[in-house]
Amino acid sequence: MQEFDPRRPTPRIAPRLLVGLGGFAALALGWKLTAAEATAPITAQLDPAAISALQHVAFTAAEAQPGFDRPESIEVKVRPGETFEDAVLRAGVAPDEARAAVRTLSESMDTVHIKAGMAFDAAVAQPRSQRGPARLIGLSLRTGPANSLTLSRTFDGALRLRELEEKVSAEQTVARGEIHGSLYESASRLGANSALVVNMVKLFAHKVDFDRDLKAGDDFTMVFDRKVTESGRTIETGNLEYASIKGIQFYRFERRGGDIQYFDETGKNIKGFLLRTPVDGARMTSTFGMRRHPILGYNRMHQGIDFGAGSGTPVVAAGDGVVVEARRWSGYGNWLRIRHNNGWETGYAHLSRYGKGIKAGQRVSQGQVVAYVGTTGASTGPHLHYEVWLNGKRTNPVGAKVPQGTVLSGAELAAFKSTKRRIDNLVAEQALAEVEPTRKLAALDTAPTKVALRR
């Protein structure tokens, strides 16, 4: 029987053999994957962190390119009349590298029929010797709302193509923020697009003067449907379910028969009879009443209000109605008059042109573009002269007491309250989620102070 010697290690053949076989298998698998990557594109559905890492793989792979500095990112946009290869050449790489890159990309996209303005990021490394052309280390571009292509070099210099696809999910988003800059800029930072903001402006147009009533720091909230990628990028928006500015709230509600309207928190239709401002984002430059006429030079009655806006700014119908006049009218220049219900009419003057299909007898709806701001007639510059008439007499648009809209009742009011309750809970949950991290941070900050006091 062999004597045990503690100075001599016990031979363990089986584990060593398994490790060796495992290493050989891993090496073989790695060789197979590397060969496959160099010849065929890879399609993957990845999480946002992985997608971000792959899109910038060219930067991390720079060390594998001997004789070249670390790459720099160059954003390139295709110019009118140039090919994709021409655009890649403008990044500073050699013609053969540009051709190779385009040839590899053509496996997964149409590199011939491209549009001017298409953008891509090129990672380019300069030679350390400062001689010769730059090296294309990588290239990435977006090919769809949730799809992108990434081209990068392998350790042996070959180009590898990856097709990246983000998962897209539908959700209802609560966007809360403060106004800094325009409402559009502020809402865009929270994932809203221009269509949502336009809808919101129309909702508040008869309640809020966007030029005078809003100031920096005013809060607003939007609840809307959207399709969003894993990285948080909005690619499509749906209905605006709720909106609030400075405490004024509007809820979207579908009535019996499928009619969709917006109501305030009491169930009153927020669609006023006439909008306060028929031009989005315009400022009031002249009020109703006596004033010194800027052209004639003497005092006379100004029978409307003026809104300063650039030439070509859309003018919308202040309410539902029928076009009575769309013609040239003396000092008013191009003039438009719309007849509404119950003896109310609105007039729009100094227009540059009329909206599509606008003529006498044409029925229009509130918020519809009916004309564009201009400076025709007796005008010193582009602006809209806006008038309101009641039973054939002009009245001050600012102080006009126009009829109110629909008020829900019975079963419809009960259904509306259920919708309102759901939206309110969503907004409250979002507000709590925004406050909770601050509370935790404050607790952590005060903990050391309490310990010090005990000492």
Describe this structure in words.
The protein has eight helices and 23 strands. The protein is of the alpha+beta class and 455 residues long. It folds into three domains: 38-165, Nuclear Transport Factor 2, Chain: A, CATH 3.10.450; 168-263, Nuclear Transport Factor 2, Chain: A, CATH 3.10.450.350; 283-395, Glucose Permease (Domain IIA) (Distorted Sandwich), CATH 2.70.70.10. Strand 5 and strand 6 (159-165) form a beta hairpin. The protein is globular and about 85 Å long.
Record keyword descriptors for this entry.
455 residues; alpha+beta; Nuclear Transport Factor 2, Chain: A; Glucose Permease (Domain IIA); ten-stranded antiparallel sheet; six-stranded mixed sheet; 8 helices; 26% helix
Report the CATH architecture of the largest domain. Roll
Helix content: 25-40%
Strand percentage lies at: 25-35%
Main structural class: alpha+beta
So what's the oligomer here? single chain
First-last Cα distance: 69 Å
- The shape, in one word, is globular
The count of β-strands is 23
CATH fold category name of the largest domain: Nuclear Transport Factor 2, Chain: A
Please give the largest β-sheet: 10 strands, antiparallel
Question: What's the gyration radius in Å?
Answer: 33 Å
Mean pLDDT, as a whole number? 76
The count of helical stretches stands at 8
Write down the domain tally: 3
Uncertain segments? 1-44, 55-64, 443-455
- CATH class wording of the largest domain: Alpha Beta
Question: How is the topology of this model organized?
Answer:
Layout (H helix, E strand, L loop, with lengths): L12 H27 L2 E4 L2 H8 L1 H4 L11 E6 L6 H6 L5 H11 L13 E7 L9 E10 L2 E7 L5 E7 L2 E11 L4 H6 L5 H11 L14 E11 L4 E12 L2 E7 L5 E4 L19 E4 L2 E4 L6 E4 L2 E4 L5 E3 L4 E8 L5 E6 L4 E11 L8 E2 L4 E5 L9 E8 L2 E3 L14 H45 L1
Parallel strand pairs: 1-6
Antiparallel strand pairs: 2-3, 3-4, 4-5, 5-6, 7-8, 8-9, 9-10, 10-11, 12-15, 13-14, 15-22, 16-21, 17-18, 17-20, 18-19, 19-21, 19-22, 22-23
